[in-house]
Amino acid sequence: MVIGYRELAGILRERIESGIYPEPSHNTLPKHADLAAEFDINVKTVRMAVRLLEAEGLVTAIRRRGTVIRRPPAMTRLGAERYAKNKWRSGVVAFAADREASGRSWERGDQTNRVRLVEADAEAAAALGLPEGAPVYERARLVRDQGSPTHKLTSFYRPEDVQGTPLVSPEPGPAGHGGGFAVLASIGLEPDVITESLYSRMPTPDEVAELELPTGVPVVVLKRKTSTREGRIIEFARGVHSSLHFEWTYTFKIPE
Fold it and tell me: Where are the domains of the chain?
């Protein structure tokens, strides 16, 4: 019986998920001609099957390498645990908490930093309780893991809250010992409540370039509001994460 491209995609999908292909193929599918010979079909059917797997995010066609199999996310992106006060009080910043939970090393230079005084857009202004266009500090970071960009995160602050603190320093890496949350705590604005929202979408062309994303890879957008125990919003942040690098995990007590 001659198989069609959907049936072939199903066979290849099962092989990928069962781990048949990673060795000795060096994380690539066999060549199209070899698959065509194995299943006694034409190369066009193989191409259509591979395109289907590409649309599902299982493989990526890379010039001179072939059809590369996408590996599971390299890191666990912690939920509430990444913000634990005992971590930033002891000098562990949020992105480093993810690395440590995943058994990976990190360096200060893994995070770039750009700080500007800008006019608040509608979303940032609403989150911080300011009129649109009000001046805010924008702190944009790009984070890398072993040389590859994993995500970017941009935080917005009221100028009167962070003026003169390490949060407005342009130096690469986290904002001082323990990162931004430790800085806020040191000036009497200790983070106590965080609200995060997440959704996925396809990346913009700029995001594809900045995060070095292969074709067809979605991003996870995170929006975060951080407030003190008294309810004062002290930070609004927007992040764009490559779905190739993270598995999101949350552990929490179920409310009554």
Answer: 5-69, 75-249
Give the integer Cα–Cα distance in Å for 224 and 124.
10
HEC profile for 168-229?
Answer: HCCCCCCCCCCHHHHHHHHCCCCCCEEEEEEEEECCCHHHHHHHCCCCCCCEEEEEEEEECC
Q: Which CATH superfamily is domain 75-249 in?
A: Chorismate lyase-like (3.40.1410.10)
The predicted structure's pLDDT at residue 216: 77
Q: What is the pLDDT of residues 36-84, one digit of tens each?
A: 999 999 999 999 999 888 877 788 877 777 887 876 666 777 677 777 7
| Mean pLDDT, rounded, for 154-172 | 92
Amino acid occupying residue 134: A
Whether the Cβ atoms of residue 192 and residue 228 lie closer than 8 Å to each other: yes
Vertex 226: Cα angle to 247 and 73 (nearest 5)? 10
Calculate the alpha carbon distances from 166 to 10, 175, 232, 234 in Å: 53, 5, 20, 15
Report the CATH fold assignment for 5-69.
Answer: Arc Repressor Mutant, subunit A (1.10.10)
- Residue 83 DSSP label: G
